[in-house]
Design a protein that fits this description.
The chain is an alpha/beta fold and 303 residues long. The chain is built from 11 helices and 8 strands. The chain has 2 domains: 28 residues, no CATH class; 264 residues, TIM Barrel. Helices cover 48% and strands 15% of the residues. Strands 1-2-3-4-5-6-7-8 form an 8-stranded parallel beta barrel, surrounded by 7 helices. Helix 2 crosses helix 10 and helix 5 packs parallel to helix 7. It is globular and about 55 Å long.
Length: 303
Amino acid sequence: MKLPHIPSLRRLFLLLLSSMIIFGTISSPTTTQANATGKLPKATWLWHTKLIETQTDELLSFSATEGIHLIYLQISTRVDLPHYKNFISKANALGIQVHALNGAPNWALESNRSQLTSFMNWIRSYQMTAEEDEQFTGVHVDIEPYLLSEWKSDINNVIKQWQANVLYLVQESRNLGLPIAADLPFWLDKYAASDSKMSLSSWMISKFDSVTLMTYRDSAKAVIDLAKQELQEAEALNKRIYTGVETKYSSEGDHVTFYEEGYDYLNGQLLQLDQLGRNYRSFAGIAVHDLVGTMDLAGRSEP
């Protein structure tokens, strides 16, 4: 609709428009992007477990603003149980689920099965002492056996043991009545699963309830290109995939992280990534690594 050709009304409109811009009634592109990405379904990792002893409110307030609905919280026996209960209870009140996180490269070896057992037993004991709103709602593992020297010297044996330990973890999670997910690299489709015609990526996706891909690149298109094969595999298996992005400094190069580009650029790319991901039924959302890194990135963008 055109404005009437009345000078006084035009002056009034321009004055009002100027006031809105000056006083911030009209959002800047940066603010708009931040608000929009706050509505995207996101997951994140919290490795610095000791922070829940002193910074629970800050961590959860930021998470709620960012639209984070799922936190993978690493388990540490150096943190007393009341801190977990307080953190999870407050997270639940904000609509944020918390999954118990742990893992190490040697968790792929059957000789270290006792470490997996200890982790699952810790969760079992915790759940028995916690009220319903204080309980974990899932299990999340980060194993990454390709960091072991054995991956180069005896890869087929490592893959076979890794699969055996995954089956063990999945069964233990079923016994607890909890879903289980895992972090996986984007290139497992290049390997064959042991004693199976499936790719290793398809096999892993078929066993876990969902998978978070470490598709760490600094553009939405690059992320989705890396995830495409697994997203298609997950569609066939009726499973869910989170695409992961990195916010922390990486020695692997600037192209794997948004650390150099900053918070505003990250938000713009997350909006694009969400749109691209929605072309796949298996797309569950975006996982941002990690919570502390994202908070630091946002802090650096403040004037």
